[in-house]
Amino acid sequence: MHNNKLLGGILLVVGTTIGAGMLALPVATAQLGFWGSTCLLIACWAIMTACAFLFLEVNLWLPPESNLISMVGATLGKGGQLIAWLIYLLLLYSILSAYIAGGGDLFHYLLGTYGIPLSNSLAAMLFTLLFGAVVYYGIRSVDYVNRGLMFGKMGAYLLLVLFILPFVNMEHLNGGALRYFTSSTSLNVTVVAFTCLMIIPSLRTYFDGDVKVLRQTILIGTLIPLFCYIAWDLVIMGVVPLQGSGGLASMVESPNSNSDLLVSLTTLLQQNRISLLAKFFTSICMATSFLSVSLCLSDFLSDGLNVPKTGINRWLVTGLTFLPPVLVVLFYPDAFIGGLKYAGLSCFILMILLPPLMVWRGRYVLNLAQGASYQVPGGKFLLTFLLLFALLMIWFGVKDTL
Predict the structure, then answer these.
(1) What is the distance, to the nearest Å, from the Cα of residue 49 to the centroid of all Cα atoms in its chain?
(2) Residue among 344, 353, 325 nearest 25 (CA)
(3) What is the Cα–Cα distance from 368 to 384, expressed in whole angstroms?
């Protein structure tokens, strides 16, 4: 049973991490080229994993069921709590809007291939209703559905990589320029691609605060996406050219980048099995991340509003979770890449700046870490490095967004 729950926890982290961000990666980092994007992936993985462990440390100082708002309130006070409220809602609603837009785009495309005409708006609502019902029943429901989807997703992913690999053109991998390393699109989408930190409070509840299992879950659950992303970039960037009609660079500003990528793969490879696998894989990618992020937002709202998810309150929390992002997608249909870009900027503040800031205050000012069961090594050097890096990335992000 212990190993079964560990596997479920790892798959929840992987499911939270590998999703729409993975589909957007080859498009968003296309100007960097394969080698540049690999360097960016490794750097973002190291930083986001370190921040995830710091977040876990702070969470373990507080009672079970504590989410981000409680953590910020205990370490940074009411002012920090208000800022965290606003930015965390912006982050999760941005990501959820991106997933609903991407999921609706895929539903529209897939149903269209089978002769079922459905508008993008209706497809987005159908996607939300279908998977939102799973989230309504809580983490156990999400865990079991996610396990089935994850096994299907990883199987499809491995087959896709193996089938596409023979078509890779090595010359395509040598393109790109490192000057795009600090572009807002490349950085923001890559950072969002490693966003698993928000599932940690739910995992702590699931594992009854078992520190060893939580650490294993986070480390393994973030390493798997890193290797998957590198291999995915290799096959996509090696097959789809950077420039030209149907090239990766032309997809960056497209409101239908997911279906554009599918069309490009189908056109270039002329392989029915690859086309079918790609459709299946991209659909599940959206579903697994949607489930995990929706669960995180639901738990966050329940904690922040101090509303237990029981009875009529469960409907209230569910409505607050899904209604705003659905409205965003209905009035802003090209929310996929745009949502991920805004989410990336929020990520720099919440996922990279806040964890070391909370740990610094908790350890060295408020003495909350005394007698704690877990402390991330690295001391003030690690915290200072992450704080400076976060501030630099926020400056780059704001400059490019404006």
Answers:
(1) 13
(2) 344
(3) 19
What is the reported pTM? 0.80
The number of angstroms, rounded, from the C-alpha of 161 to the middle of its chain's C-alpha atoms is 21
User: Distance between CA 354 and CA 19 in Å, rounded?
Assistant: 24
58 pLDDT band, cuts 50/70/90, is very high
Please give the DSSP secondary-structure letter assigned to residue 362: I
Tell me which DSSP letter residue 306 carries: T
Q: Retrieve residue 171's tokens.
A: 């010359």
Measured distance CA(393)–CA(184) in Å, rounded = 9
Give the tens place of pLDDT for each residue, 4-26: 788 888 888 887 787 656 777 88
Contact status, residue 71 vs residue 83, Cβ threshold 8 Å:
no
Helix (H, G, I), strand (E, B) or coil at 142: helix
Q: Which two tokens stand for residue 375?
A: 């402390």
For residues 296 and 202, the answer to whether their CB atoms sit within 8 Å is: yes
CA atoms within 13 A on the CB side of 338: 14
Category of 247 on φ-ψ map: left (φ > 0), alpha (ψ -120 to 50) or beta: beta
The DSSP result for 238-294, as a single string, is HHS-SSSTT-HHHHTT-TTHHHHHHHHHHHHH--HHHHHHHHHHHHHHHHHHHHHHH
The residues, any chain, with a CB within 8 Å of residue 272's CB and separated by 6 or more, are none
Token pair 């019902």: residue: 133
